[in-house]
Amino acid sequence: MRRTITAGAVTCLALAALTACGGSGGDSGKEKAPSGALDGRGPVTFVTGKDRSGNLQKQIDGWNSAHPKEQVRVVELPDEPNDQRQQMIQNAQTKSDAYGVLNLDVVWTAEFAANRWLTPLPKDQIDLSKMLPATVTTGEYRDKLYAVPSTSDAGMLYYRKDLLDKAGISAPPKTYAEMWADCDKVKALPEGKGVDCYFTEVNKTESLTISAVEAVSSQGGSLLDASGKPTVTTPQVKAGIQFLADARKAHMPKEAVTLDTEGGRRYFQGGKLLFQRQWPYQYALADKADGSSKVAGKFAVAPLPGPNGPGVANLGGHNLAISAFAKNKATAFDFIKYLTGEQAQRANLLATSQAPTVASLYDDPALTKRFPYLPVLKQAIAGAKPRPVVVKYGDVTAAIQGAVYDAVNGRTTVDQAVTDLQGKLTTLTAAQ
Q: Is 428 exposed, middle or buried (0-12, 13-18, 19+ CB in 10 A)?
């Protein structure tokens, strides 16, 4: 999901709009020292990526109706996570109070907390025991809570069940070899003509880091070890990157390097893919019976395949945090508790099919009937692996994207790519 407007330009526009409208009061452009106290009540801005469902605004309207003196206003950033992160960083570096509650990708916690751009949150004032344990850890840094899990995420395999049934295939593939064999069988059918085999994102964005982590983790490897040291030159990492390179060459559509998350969704919904690695949010959109999807009622989901059995998903999702420079932090914290509560998460799941963080929702009979993938997703989240948890995350993910992109597109060998990446990550993680 991309936008051509530069991050700096959008930031300036957003700040200007906040100042003109009053924002949280005062001059938003003035620098101020961060405050760790959760005090102050009044208007709050909620900074997030694009809401394509319309559900977020409904939830904001619900809050605003009940809190006329503590109104929340949404500031939407571009679709691309890299652009969102950059704009939030620019705002924090100017110590502006224009941004209040931040909707953070789970991998940004360490970077934002280490730079003191976030306000620590009291664990005893929010019930984290109801949430999936894996999601809670993404909001912590050095044993302190800096963000509350709002949505989780894990990659799943979307597949055309109708085409597998037509080819006499009774179950989704558990291994790469099974997936390629299934593709051959479907392509031999008249209905399989014009349908590409497989897609996971290999364009040079954050999504490529995610694809790399999943491919490497499925091989039993890791880009960094438990102590944070790079382990890129291992056979497992090489095998993971080689899988992406081979899949890109032999099994993906020609447009693969230009397709982002939304592009992949449209490709699948257009009936052009047999197998796709994708997030849960796609389920509700692809299953719409309004004519926008050609595969409604024709697909299902399964765990990601791996080299010798089920693969490993990347742990994604978003957490809500409070800018260290925000005003009205007491209101901001109450709003976070409202938006991450069970009722709000249930409504969000029903409207968007995004993964909740409240564990009980995955076992609710009414919800599992509506979203049959919930048991698969819960299992995927439990076994998912995160992207590198590092302070210099922006530099680390850029290095991963550059090396893997070159290997996937044949600009360099896999061996050379991992050697170069090992050197870059060693430098970037040395001072953690």
A: buried
Q: Are 313 and 191 in contact (CB under 8 A)?
A: no
CATH of domain 155-314+388-428: 3.40.190.10
CATH superfamily of 7-153+316-383: Periplasmic binding protein-like II (3.40.190.10)
This prediction has a pTM of 0.82
- Give the residue from 250, 268, 240, 260 showing the smallest Cα distance to 183: 250
Domain boundaries, the chain: 7-153+316-383, 155-314+388-428
Contacts (Cβ under 8 Å, ≥6 apart) of 382: 132, 134
CATH topology identical between 7-153+316-383 and 155-314+388-428: yes
* Closest by CA position to 33, among listed 323, 324, 322: 324
Amino acid (1-letter code) at residue 359: A
Burial class (CB in 10 A: 0-12, 13-18, 19+), 203: buried
Of 71, 56, 57, 76, the closest CA to residue 13 belongs to 76
Judge residue 246's burial from the number of C-beta atoms within 10 Å of its C-beta, 0-12 exposed, 13-18 middle, 19 or more buried. middle
Q: How many CB atoms lie within 10 A of CB 8?
A: 11
Tell me the average confidence (pLDDT) per consecutive run of 10 residues in the chain, 432 residues long. Answer: 37 37 39 69 96 89 98 93 93 97 96 97 95 95 96 96 98 98 98 96 95 98 94 98 98 94 96 96 93 97 97 96 97 98 95 93 96 93 92 94 97 97 96 64
Distance CA 176, CA 243 (A): 9
SS3 410: coil
